[in-house]
Design a protein that fits this description.
By secondary structure, this protein is an alpha+beta fold. The protein has 14 helices and 31 strands. The protein binds guanosine-5',3'-tetraphosphate (G4P).
Length: 543
């Protein structure tokens, strides 16, 4: 490369980094994540009509059948990465699968984003899955924008919702806009920073962008739409917020210590575009990522680096392929690039990279930090793997997450003993599931997962890729803990009646508890012993 080429390329890389926004939407099922995604795509001009990604209502059945098929094949194709341009920004929206698709992947996706949007149903407030996903974001200290959705329905008081965010999640919430009316009288929002009324009109089936009127609180049309009492209440609320509301502090937001809150209705397209504008204004571009030695890898570095955060098998049932999704952390990626991989001495040529948009694969020529590339994976990659050019880079390992579901896995055909163990080993190494060993001599491995889908994927993949049929026996335990302390003291522990003893990969004893109550009792009863219980991974829902 000549000096001139280097000089030209560097600003281009820096610009590409600066214009990227890579985020995920976290929410409880049914809060409106899919609807908001569609509407962001509508306003991002990535689809012409909302509903093109997933046509609503009449296709609802088709969708669940399709999901059943996916599970049958051991995959979860609903999880995609959407990329679209809005104004000068390139937006990467990573899906965090919920419902039946919930798995450790859902948490791991949050390891690959620079910020998150939290969608809350205005009638329900903070729900359990939102809380869990929020804890993962908090662990990473990533900035979170909150969208309070469904304001066109019967909603709770906005102030009460702000309080709930603060009390349940423990993060200060700064209102950035304020709903005008609620339920059927919901008109739009008052932008607290600009001091403007944004009134939206409904469109047919809400498939097109909602026309917007900008005015102020004295607008006679607003007064007549709301009526005297509601209008007076609105003026009073805004006065109160401007005097005593939590102010927005960009630094606290950037450190994940305050969340700006926006009200709206994704279904009706009310407040979606201003939210998208705020997203590109406030969400950070790709951030440096810590290498194993703690030093930051800067996105605008010339050398390429990326890490694998997700592996999906059998995306295409015709070819038994597996795909590794890698998030680029630094440098420019180009098709046919030769990269290094710590476990493979020889370099790897990335000749078939692509992006996944909904169901379609688009061949990829180049990509930049913040982008996600899908790589064909003939057994090469495991979760957390780093690929790079130049000097060796290894990122800090991705955390494991505390499993909540357990099953014993039995091979149905003893003549396939070898394939069974080989397959299980590979799937554990890939990060598809966690494995424990029984403490007795039964030799029946125990599987541990955060979502039921992981068991189904394991079963289907053992069948399709290793020709092994397994039987799963679901166990009614809810928590697994490593047992640590002095051996003599541990021997004195009186274990609860409903418990199972196991071991982890290193042979450390693990205890499986049936309930949190059992667990607490066990700890309280032995406070005088040198004995403690440690989680197997990051606990997203501390009890
Ligand atoms: P999810 O991905 O978070 O699970 O939620 P999704 O977008 O699928 O929305 C769940 C339900 O909430 C859907 O209704 C959707 O139409 C509705 N919804 C989303 N945003 C709004 C909103 O702003 N206002 C109102 N009133 N409803 C909203 P559904 O009946 O379950 O599905 P469908 O029949 O509409 O497809």
């Amino acid at each position: 490369m000549t000096i001139t080429e280097t000089a030209v390329r560097r600003p281009q890389l820096q610009e590409e980094v600066q214009r990227r926004r890579t985020f995920a939407i976290i929410s409880h099922p049914d809060a409106g994540k899919t609807t908001l995604t569609e509407k962001l795509l509508l306003y991002g001009n990535a689809v012409e009509m909302a509903g093109s990604v997933r046509t609503r209502k009449n296709h609802r059945h088709a969708r669940s059948d399709w999901m059943a098929m996916e599970q049958e094949r051991g995959i979860s194709i609903t999880s995609t990465v959407l990329q679209f341009e809005y104004q000068d920004c390139c937006i990467n929206l990573l899906d965090t699968p919920g419902h039946e698709d919930f798995s450790e992947d859902t948490y791991r996706t949050l390891m690959a984003v620079d910020s998150a949007i939290m969608v809350i149903d205005a009638a329900k407030g903070i729900e359990p899955q939102t809380r869990k996903l929020f804890e993962v974001c908090r662990m990473r200290r990533i900035p979170i924008l909150t969208f309070v959705n469904k304001m066109d329905h019967l909603a709770r008081e906005p102030l009460e919702l702000l309080d709930e965010i603060e009390n349940v999640l423990g993060i200060p919430a700064a209102a950035m806009n304020w709903p005008i009316g609620d339920g059927p009288t919901f008109q739009g929002v008052y932008d607290l920073q600009a001091g403007q009324v944004l009134r939206f009109s409904r469109t047919e089936h809400s498939q097109h962008k909602a026309p917007l009127t900008v005015s102020d609180l004295g607008d006679p049309a607003l007064l007549s739409a709301l009526g005297d009492a509601a209008h007076a209440q609105l003026v009073e609320d805004i006065d109160l917020l401007q005097g005593a509301g939590m102010p927005f502090d960009p630094e606290l937001y950037g450190a994940g210590k305050l969340t700006p809150v926006y009200f709206g209705s994704a279904l009706n397209n009310f407040g979606v575009e201003p939210f998208l504008q705020e997203l590109i204004r406030l969400a950070p571009p790709p951030q440096p990522r810590a290498a194993e030695d703690g030093s930051p890898v800067i996105p605008a570095n010339e050398e390429f680096s990326a890490f694998v955060f997700k592996i999906q098998a059998n995306m295409n049932p015709k070819h038994r392929d597996s795909v590794a999704f890698a998030r680029i952390c630094s440098g420019r990626f180009a098709k046919d690039m030769l990269v290094k991989h710590p476990r493979h001495k020889k370099g790897l040529r990335l000749s078939r990279p692509y992006q996944v948009f909904a169901q379609e694969r688009v061949s990829l020529e180049e990509a930049y930090p913040g982008d996600v590339i899908a790589l064909a994976n003939p057994g090469l990659f495991a979760i957390g793997d780093t690929i790079y050019t130049g000097n060796r880079v290894e990122f800090q390992p991705l955390p494991r997450f505390q499993p909540e579901l357990f099953a014993a896995v039995r091979n149905q055909d003893t003549s396939k003993h070898k394939q069974f163990h080989k397959g299980l080993e590979q799937l554990v190494r890939e990060g598809a599931i966690q494995r424990l060993y029984p403490a007795d001599e039964s030799n029946v491995p125990l599987l541990a997962a955060v979502g039921e889908l992981q068991f189904q994927v394991l079963k289907a993949r053992l069948r399709t890729e290793y020709n092994v049929e397994v039987e799963l026996e679901f166990l009614s335990f809810t928590a697994a803990k490593r047992v640590l302390g002095r051996a003599e003291d541990i021997r004195q522990v009186k274990w609860p009646y409903r418990i199972m003893h196991a071991k982890d990969d290193d042979g450390t004893p693990v205890a499986l508890f049936a309930s949190q109550w059992d667990l607490r009792q066990c700890l309280e009863r032995h406070a005088e012993l040198d004995f403690r219980l440690e989680d197997l991974g990051f606990t997203v829902d501390p009890h």
